[in-house]
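Response to reviewer comment R2.3. The reviewers asked that we include at least one raw input/output pair. We reproduce the pair for MOSC domain-containing protein here without editing.
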Amino acid sequence: MFKESTEMPVWLSKSGLYGDEVADKKNHGGQEKAIFAYPVSHYDYWQDEQHIEGIHIGGMGENLAVADMDEYTVCIGDTYQFGEAVIQVSQPRKPCWKPARRHQTMDLAMRIQKTGRTGWYFRVLQEGFVKAGAELALLERPHIEWSIANCNEVMYEKKNDLELAKKLVKCHLLADSWKQPLVKRLEGKASS
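Raw output as returned:
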């Protein structure tokens, strides 16, 4: 949760950045969640609008702080060249208790969820060295209809729209860990 920036090149493997340990491997990390990205612009919102003092880049536990990207402009399956590596958006981040604890803001997970400022995860398609400041060059965007914001909306706001849930579950590049609760939702509604 406490990340430090580095200017040195770092090896990015299928399971994440070398030297970046993940404590909770059940809910974080792994091949579908190798890198967690969070927009730098969100920090102004948390400081100025939500009055969370001391929250700054790295405050959400991200491995990658990004500029000029957000949940409305990033889609499931977006594939980027990042240094020597090739990475692909796999799912939004499900807000958890760790940022709330770190920033001593009990309801921060719920605020993250309600605002849609969740960030997102990447899987690694091609391993390689990456470095701070490297541009993320978009190579492919196969699912423009499934922005991170749209996925969050289906998961958290439009829970009764089963048609949308069915469509999202069919997105083959969406991580299974994001599909599972939607499948349970569909099964639960179908049996009642």
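The chain has a mean pLDDT of 87. The beta strands are 10-13, 16-17, 35-39, 64-66, 79-82, 85-92, 120-126, 128-130, 136-140. Further pairs are available on request from the corresponding author.
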